[in-house]
Amino acid sequence: MPTAPPESSPARLKEDAIGFVDALVIGLNATSPAYSLAAVIGPIAALVGVYAPGVLLASFVPMALIATAFFYLNRVDQDCGTTFSWVTRAMGPWAGWIGGWSIAMTGVLVVGSLADVGVRYGLYTVGLDAMADSTPIRMGLAVVLILLMTWLCVLGTDVSAKLQNGLIVAQVTALLVFAGVALARVYGDNAMEGGLHPSVSWLNPSGSGGAALSGGLLLGVFAYWGWESAVNLSEETKDGDSAPGRAGVWSTLILLATYISVGIAVVAFAGPAWLSENAEEEEAVFALLSTEVMGSWDWVVYFAVATSAVASTQTTIIPASRTALSMARRHALPQTFGHISPAHRTPDVSTWWVAGIAIVWYFGISAISENALFDSLTALSLLIAFYYALTGVACAVYHRRHLTESVRNLVLIGIGPVVGALLLLWLLALSIRDMANPENSYSGQAWLGVGPPLVIGISVLLAGVLTMFWWRAKDGRFWQEKAGLPDPDVVHGIRRAAADPDDLEG
């Protein structure tokens, strides 16, 4: 009599699907460098003038410190849920759950806007300005773009990496050409009226004064957001205990060089006065400068912003979907979110859910007004600062028994991440203060007596808390997990962390 076949094991994410360079590129593209820089350079210049490059330099500090925390936490726990898993291990399930919710919701809030920008500037690139300015056409194409990028994410991480590699080359090349031409015209005394020759003093962030500096940092810090997408792919990357963490750190370094070089070129060519006057144009600053700098080649700048936004549309889906997968397999969310496609070895259900909710949010918030869409992006700062700070604290708490073993451990695993977390919490407090004033919002209207971004940010976190209590009452298995400590051998590099993401080390 033939025996029944053994029960097949559940599908797992595809191991070794990508390498270090692929993870690095995905981390870079997730920040959307061209779009992010275009969006913040005007408002920062309005606050600090020629010291905008210095503010971008200072904004790098907390990001570098938190990137170090991601590196060391990933070394002992290669879980695609990153902050969710690490904070759960270090500080318990309640803190871990809300950290995971914050990551997932950042993707939901931003994907629609990124697709909108990608479509708008893609149409500008090919001269279809009328279509770009038509809201129905632009929004329809944005939804098509979201669905296309989601489909590519489901097809495979290696497929996504190939597309991302091409997009980063196109984006960086266009940015460097733009910066090079701008600087050449500056030194050829052919810049805009008010243009200046660059000075080393521009890199001094304190030259602008305290109040202006804090406001600039609020903008600058979040221009770096997104690099951790590389670490969300730790289970799918070769040398998953080291390569994703290194990719995250190197992403911040490359972003620093890109932001400062292009920032200097923009400030030098246009001058701080012009940038200040056009600060409210957001990513359109590059569009306004494109013809001034490139002449008939202005499409190069449009192309840079378009490829930046398109790439980030795809890479922003990755951390949200992987976090949902990690939460589901730990019973912190319904099991359906933990389904992995047997054919493609990707989290298909959670990926499509992220895209679907993002589309609904995009249409819903846009129905209020385009300014409300921008206000929802401003609310991202609350979620980003929160889960980054939570990760920095978790790093020190999780490694607490190893901090005094060496100066290196004390500085890189303990003091550095905690300092980064404190800086982000300070910026979070400043953000709340500024968002409370309706005049600081895009709509300029008050919701519940305060600015719309603050209402949106707090509502998202409150919805997370309510969802957490609801799921805790429905299925309490996740809340039985206890905070623990990393395996000492793993901390000391003797062996790699256990492959089983559900295995808590006591």
Explained architecture:
This protein has 19 helices and no strands. The protein has 506 residues and is mostly helical. It has a domain of 352 residues: Amino acid/polyamine transporter I. The N terminus and C terminus are likely disordered.
Task: Summarize this structure as a short list of keywords or feature phrases.
506 residues; disordered N terminus; mainly alpha; Amino acid/polyamine transporter I; single chain; 68% helix
Q: What is the mean predicted local confidence, pLDDT?
A: 86
Helix and strand run: HHHHHHHHHHHHHHHHHHH
| CATH architecture descriptor text of the domain at 20-371 | Up-down Bundle
> How many strands in all?
0
Low-confidence stretches: 1-9, 497-506
Tell me the major beta sheet.
Answer: none
Assign the CATH topology of the domain at 20-371: Amino acid/polyamine transporter I
The DSSP helix count reads 19
User: What level of helicity do the residues show?
Assistant: 55-70%
Provide a compact summary of the structure.
The protein is mainly α. It has helices spanning 20-30, 33-48, 52-76, 83-91, 93-125, 129-132, 135-155, 157-187, 210-223, 243-270, 272-277, 284-294, 299-329, 348-368, 370-378, 380-398, 407-435, 452-474, 488-491.
Set down the secondary structure blueprint.
Blueprint: H1 20-30, H2 33-48, H3 52-76, H4 83-91, H5 93-125, H6 129-132, H7 135-155, H8 157-187, H9 210-223, H10 243-270, H11 272-277, H12 284-294, H13 299-329, H14 348-368, H15 370-378, H16 380-398, H17 407-435, H18 452-474, H19 488-491
Helix pairs in contact: 1-8, 1-10, 1-13, 2-9, 2-10, 2-13, 3-9, 3-10, 3-16, 3-17, 4-5, 4-16, 5-7, 5-13, 5-14, 5-16, 5-18, 7-13, 7-14, 8-10, 8-13, 9-17, 12-13, 13-14, 14-15, 15-18, 16-17, 16-18
